[in-house]
Every structure is written in structure tokens, then in C-alpha cells.
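Objective 1b. Sequence-to-structure analysis of Kazal-like domain-containing protein.
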Amino acid sequence: MRFLIFVCLLVIFCVAVEQSSAQCSRACPYNYAPVCGRIGRNTRTFSNECEFNSVNCQSGGRGKILKRGQC
């Protein structure tokens, strides 16, 4: 019985993780329109705003675009 409960909880956890990662877009266009952004303590240049948004989403969504162009 404990094993069955464990398996059910494991399946629910896996489905929840898959759904949360599916919400972040990972496909971005190849156009180069750099933006300078900060995610956590790291400041870096992203190829475009879509790439920034994708990385930001996967990191918890607390990042900020500092300016258009390279850092």
C-alpha cells in the first residue's frame, strides 16, 4: 500500500514539473537585437528580448532588462 501511494505521488510530481517547465518558451528567433539584462546577481548580454524572457522564466521570473544593446 505504501508503495502504491509513493508511485502515485511520484507521478503527480513528475506531471507538475513537466507542466511548469512547459510554460517557458524555449524557441526564439535568430534575429540579433541585443539587450542587457540582470537575472539574480548576473548581468549579461542576451541575443534578443525573447532569449532574455526564456532564461528569466526558467530562473523564476525575477530578472530585469537594464537597457537595449550590449552591457
